[in-house]
Protein: CDP-alcohol phosphatidyltransferase family protein
Organism: Streptomyces broussonetiae
Amino acid sequence: MALNNPYGASPVLQEPAVGAGVQILLLALLGPAIGMGPAGWLTGLVFAVATWAVLSRAVHRSRLRSFGPANRVTLGRAVLVGAVTALVADSFAGPPPVTLLVGLTAVALLLDGVDGKVARRTGTSSALGARFDMEVDAFLILVLSVYVAVSVSVGPWVVLIGGMRYAFVAASYVYRWLNAPLPPSTARKTVAALQGVLLLVAGSDLLPRVATTGLAALALGLLVWSFGRDVVWLWRRSRAVAAVGGAGTGAGPERVLEPVAG
């Protein structure tokens, strides 16, 4: 996105601002059409400003020379997630436009697999892009879990689905062994992808209450299993590191810590 730059700002730093502008424009189009209330407007605007601020700081610290096509796809997804967040906040005051909410969420979920493919095909993969993608996914799951818990009235326990990743991050500040890198896992990726799909179907209000509750319970059960599996692996890894470091046998820790595909 090439823009005139009279104030000397780096072009790559302009892209988060463009994303915030698109977010506000989308709210301006959707708000009057659906009669969005103050809660929806405020939440959407806060999301736009917060995304701009956090992403701008991350881009500056990463010293990227180009924002890249994959990050633009993720930024587009973030704009959709911002709109979904505004709709969910607005749903606390009155019935939400379920069709619109489901449609925006479905597009955001479908694009989840696009940014990674674009990054690989264009050779623009980066740590920032991977983190940006993960944070957008995590926040969408949190918002959907709140919607299913409150607006669909399944129960507050559903928020555990969206909160589990943030609880894991908080715990990693106390238990440093949780920060170790995990081995690649198809099962983990599958469970993560299913969270959005199951919560979307549960939030569509198309199924009987028993089925909706069952889908939410399935999503939570799969997530508990996935996180529990990873926590056990990390704990065993930390024990292995301690054992190798204390034994002084000369056996390389890479032998003890060799990941097993799962």
About this structure: Confidence is low (pLDDT under 50) at residues 1-8, 248-262. The chain is about 75% helix and 0% strand.
